[in-house]
Amino acid sequence: MTQQTFGSFEEFWPYYVAMHSKAATRWVHLAGTLTGLAVSGYGLARGRGRYAAALPLIGYGTAWPAHFLIEKNNPATFGHPAWSLRGDVKMITTMLAGRDAELAETAAKWLAGNGGSAHAAAQDDEEG
Question: Residue 54 half-sphere exposure, CB side, CA atoms within 13 Å?
Answer without folding.
Answer: 18
